[in-house]
Amino acid sequence: MAEYIRARSEDQKEERLNQIKDATAKLFETQPFNEITLSTIAEKLGWSRANLYKYVTTKEEIILEIATDKMNKYYTSLLAAFPEGNNYSAEVIAEVWAGILNANQDYMRYVSYLNPVIETNVTVDRLTVFKKKYYDLAYQLRNRLAAMLNTTPELSYKIQLAVLFFASSHAISCYKNPLVQKALKKIKINPPALDFCKDMKDFILMRLTWAKQTGN
Questions:
Q1: Cα–Cα distance between 65 and 70 in angstroms, integer?
Q2: Which residue from 168, 50, 159 is spatially nearest to 101, judged by alpha carbons?
Q3: Run of H or E residues at 187
Q4: Residue 5 pLDDT more than 70?
Q5: pTM for this predicted structure
Q6: Which of 39, 149, 164, 209 holds its CA 20 to 30 A away from the CA of 198?
Q7: Contacts 24+ apart (CB under 8 A), 42-46
Q8: Under a CB-based contact definition with an 8 Å cutoff, are residues 100 and 77 in contact?
Q9: H or E segment at 34?
């Protein structure tokens, strides 16, 4: 628990914001989204809600900042793994990409909340900054993929989005919800085991093969 000390410089303000993000991220890992509030975040920090309000006004803007950090990590990892001029096979691309997705499952969970919840509850100015960062990174990867796959930027972007959406839905699979697990146990349903990394590799390879065969 971080003791609250009023920030008196830009460095101290950044430190407070990082403390807020760390506390919120921990809550996001363990609690349903609707149960996270500015009050629970302040309590996690050991601050008053009034002190928290000096830095943020909604939980969504905090989570957007956390998502931005995780987005940077995900795309930076992909761009580093797929350097310009490589001639990796579809199998290698799928395996490496799946490994990066697996290492960034936490980001995938944030992605699942971005469009329906987070992006509709922040200011236009904050959303503009976030979108600019996203497209800067996503278009770099789009262009890298297009060169790797010898296809158009439009198609490579569609592949990138398909992978992102599949991974985000897999990362929050209902089977991982303790309440769902209890409900399924009551009706004696045993769902198939999920293997995130393998499922991602299979999906990416299928999508790359489909694109090569059909151009879609």
A1: 9
A2: 168
A3: none
A4: no
A5: 0.88
A6: 149
A7: 44/1, 45/1, 45/2, 45/4, 45/19, 45/20, 46/1, 46/2, 46/3, 46/4
A8: yes
A9: none
